[in-house]
From TrEMBL:
SUPFAM superfamilies associated with the record: Acyl-CoA N-acyltransferases (Nat)
Region forming the signal peptide: none
Single GO term (MF): acyltransferase activity
Coiled coil: none
Keyword Signal: no
Keyword flag Cell wall biogenesis/degradation: no
Protein name (database record): GNAT family N-acetyltransferase
InterPro entries according to UniProt: Acyl_CoA_acyltransferase, GNAT_dom
Source organism of the structure: Streptomyces castrisilvae
Residue ranges of domain N-acetyltransferase in the record: 14-184
Length: 188
């Protein structure tokens, strides 16, 4: 999308492209900590999880970089596997709403975060559409805190629909919504 990749005024020349997220995991988690609110202990836990995820042969990661190379946003995901922890948690909820088939042939958006100083310029939208445009799966799923957040607003506008609400992840303090969208994601 031109807004975030072509140096337009809305993005102050932030560019979206592939990055070695494992090598930049600390920078990424610093962005996530500010955007999503992570404490020091959670960052350490997430660090191991992110590095394990990125070992997946089909994991894909994109970063949003300022002209001087600072990471101000990132997205990563991978094809869903029903044996993955995330899928085992959401599967009973999706089964209950008749949407468990969304777990097959689906690309999971695992994390999407934009530094608060850079939000609302189209960067999040560019990250998620660019990463999903490049995958062979016909659809995408994700989970987001089940509230009226900018993230949920963005996902709805991209065509994600609620597949299950009030999904409880062990250890997560708030319930999540599981959302799914056909690919390619809807354009405005
Ligand atoms: C979700 C997030 C990644 C979006 O990144 P972003 O770069 O600000 O998003 P964009 O500028 O590309 O898109 C903003 C879109 O979000 C939605 N949005 C933004 N603010 C909103 C609000 N207050 N209420 C509802 N929707 C809102 C709109 O759909 C908007 O689209 P528009 O371009 O038509 O206005 C960013 O807000 C973020 O990092 N949030 C905190 C972390 C988080 O919640 N991550 C997702 C975890 S599931």
């Amino acid at each position: 999308m031109a807004a975030a990749s072509g140096g337009g005024p809305r993005t102050n020349r932030v560019r979206v492209g592939p990055i070695d997220l494992a090598a930049r995991v600390d920078e990424a988690l610093a962005v996530q900590a500010l955007a999503f609110g992570l404490g020091a202990e959670e960052i350490e836990v997430r660090r191991h999880i992110v590095l394990r995820h990125l070992d997946h042969p089909h994991a894909r990661a994109l970063g949003a970089l300022t002209p001087d190379g600072r990471l101000v946003g990132f997205v990563y995901g991978m094809p869903n596997e029903r044996g993955h922890w995330w899928a085992t948690v959401v599967e009973p909820y999706l089964r209950a709403t008749g949407s468990a088939h969304w777990l097959d042939d689906s690309f999971v958006i695992t994390e999407l975060h934009v530094h608060p100083d850079f939000q609302n310029r189209g960067i999040g939208r560019t990250l998620i559409t660019t990463v999903t445009d490049a995958v062979p799966q016909p659809r995408s799923i994700l989970s987001a805190i089940d509230t009226d957040s900018p993230a949920r607003g963005l996902y709805h506008s991209l065509g994600y629909q609620d597949l299950a609400r009030q999904v409880i992840f062990p250890s997560a303090p708030k319930p999540y919504a599981v959302m799914g969208a056909p690919l390619p994601l809807r354009r405005r």
